[in-house]
Amino acid sequence: MRVWKKWGAVLILAGAALWTGSFLAACGNTAAESSSASSASQSVPPEPAKEPEHSPTANGMSSNSQKEGFPATESFAAPAVSPSSFLEDRMNETSLQILVESDTQQIVFRLNDSSAAKSLYRQLPLTVSVENYGNNEKIFYPPEKLSTADTPIAQGPAGILAYYAPWGDVVMFYGSCDGFESLYQLGEAISGGEQIENLTGELRISRFSEEEAPGEEFQEETTMKMQVQVGDHIFTATLENNSAADALAEMMKTAPVELRMSDYSGFEKVGPLGQNLPAEDRQITTQAGDIVLYTGNQIVMFYGSNSWSYTRLARIDSLTGWEEALGSGEVTVNLSLG
Questions:
Q1: Which of 32, 100, 146, 246 is the most buried (most CB within 10 A)?
Q2: What's 219-337's CATH class?
Q3: Residue 156 phi, psi dihedral angles, 5° rounding
Q4: Residues 218, 300: contact at Cβ < 8 Å?
Q5: How far apart are the C-alpha atoms of 80 and 61, rounded to whole Å?
Q6: What is the pLDDT of residue 123?
Q7: Which has the closest alpha carbon to 101: 270, 218, 14?
Q8: pLDDT given for residue 86 in this prediction
Q9: What are the start-end ranges of the H helices in the chain?
Q10: Helix-helix angle 85-93:115-122, to 10 degrees
Q11: Which residues pair with 160 in a beta bridge?
């Protein structure tokens, strides 16, 4: 009996709920119809699903980003441009040349199309120390090893530029190159090859274009001379081929440049120029006889050696009596074109 009463009560309550739901639904439909007369019905959008985690791509856009109106399977982001893309294009389209300079020599090498040659070209410009090896080689060490894939074995007459992989050194032959395993050819000298044997000290190696190939005008610029007078002693120096040396030469065309110089650190004389020159500073190791620009407006003359960031201006041609002339304490130095 308790069961029937229970279920009877449930049925009564369910009926009441059904009637109430129908009544509310009717009211809701009436309100919706009334609202649609003035504005279109709107539905509340569902909460967007959380996007999967992603990492940014090289161009800064997310890997799952999609431009509106385009299929998700296509990417329309602009490709990232590598800072070295122009250099890579140049290496693929032109015959590469490099310039090897000492204070008195200039040699132009034409590189082959090998991976090793391109590896060297990417590292330029460089300042390195050259060493003599055997009786037919000058060598230097680039900071990074070269890739030797598809690079031919070196063999040929004097003027060959090569790379010896086991040691990681670049070789300039001033005698014949007989060729052996792990010695790879990078190119050959096309100008100044006869000067390889005389290379000493520090070398400056840079990229070189055919339009700048040494000619009469080029040789004249690189052999511009300067007179350096210290007291009663007069020395001849060869000016560098750069904008700082050119600006100094322009000053000397107007009048000799007088410098009051004093000792510093026991290996150099330094003095203010009185105006700024266009600096092209880079880390170098100086030798006795080097004349450099420091901080754009200081002239430094070396009778010893130092490693620092300078712009090269000139080098004394003959060091005979150079250190003695500079002496100790303050000196007056006059610079003029010669």
A1: 100
A2: mainly beta
A3: 155, -170
A4: no
A5: 10
A6: 92
A7: 218
A8: 46
A9: 2-36, 85-93, 115-122, 216-222, 243-254, 322-326
A10: 140
A11: 188
DSSP letter string, 173-194: ESS-B---TTEEEEEEEEESGG
Return the CA Rg of the chain.
Answer: 39
Q: Which two tokens stand for residue 74?
A: 């296509």
Position 250 scores a pLDDT of 94
Give CA–CA dist 205/212, Å, rounded.
15
Q: CATH topology of 88-214 equal to that of 219-337?
A: yes
Domains of the chain, residue spans: 88-214, 219-337
In the prediction, which pLDDT does 242 show? 87
Count other C-beta atoms under 10 Å from residue 11's C-beta: 10
pLDDT at residue 92, rounded to an integer: 56
Strand 282-286 to 160-164 pairing: unpaired
The CATH code belonging to domain 88-214 is: 2.40.100.20
Predicted local confidence at residue 142, as pLDDT: 93
Q: Say what the pLDDT of residue 273 is.
A: 96
Phi, psi of 324 (to 5 degrees): -65, -40
Residue type present at position 318: S
Q: Please identify every stretch of the chain with a pLDDT value under 50, giving residue numbers as ranges.
A: 1-14, 16-18, 20-87, 215-222
Q: Which of 125, 103, 208, 116 lies closest to 171 in space, CA to CA?
A: 116
The residue length of the chain stands at: 338
